[in-house]
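Local shape tokens:
==================
===
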Amino acid sequence: MADETTTTHETATPRETIVIRDNPSAGSGMGWLLGLIVILALIAGLFLFSQANQSEAVKDNAIANAANNVGAAAQDVGAAAKGAADTLGKQ
């Protein structure tokens, strides 16, 4: 805490008080606290943004895999249909 010196002069006019502070630049640390809060908010935002991007990539990969499975199943059905047609054609 800063040292303060108070001097009061009593005269016929209204009282005059002079306060001298040794360390007028000392603050409560509110600037540091706000800065820390802003930095933490930025870190949290970046984390959430990266999670959203990863989630989107996982969803895209799942859709691509499902499309590949549907394509493979369609080929199997086509091969089975051709086999059945060949068998009927030989009779």
About this structure: The mean pLDDT is 80. The chain has one helix and two strands. The longest strand covers residues 4-9.
